[in-house]
Amino acid sequence: MGQKRSYKNHQKELPEEAVGLVLEQGYSVPEAAKSLGIAANILYRWKQSIEDLNQGLVMTKDERDEFKRLRKENKELMMEMIYLKRPACNGQVIL
Fold first, then answer.
1. Are 30 and 46 members of one domain?
2. Are the CB atoms for 49 and 18 separated by under 8 Å?
3. What confidence tens digit (pLDDT) does each residue in 24-56 have?
């Protein structure tokens, strides 16, 4: 019980190559998974993720980063707009 559980770390290229075996070379998912030494359910997930990405159903990391940046910028601009719309009363700031 004192042993730590170890997880296999797959290289970034492995999912793309594995899915390529299925989509481009005609292997079945179980055949490709067995030849690569991974579980078939992992390959099914990779295949679905890559298909979703190719169809534009999910955002890439760059798109997510840009989306976060734009949300932050939008929030800052909204705050500036609210601040600039406040009336000034004889030099006093009204909150």
1. yes
2. no
3. 999 999 999 999 999 999 999 999 998 988 888
Predicted pLDDT at 14: 84
**For residue 35, what are the domain limits?**
10-58
Question: Which of 15, 5, 12, 7 is CA-nearest to residue 36?
Answer: 15
**Predicted model pTM:** 0.55
Tell me, what DSSP letter sits at residue 92? B
Burial 26-53 (b: 16+ CB within 10 A, else e): ebebeebbeebebeeebbeebbeebeee
Find out whether 53 and 61 touch, Cβ atoms under 8 Å.
no
> Is residue 6 helix, strand or coil?
coil
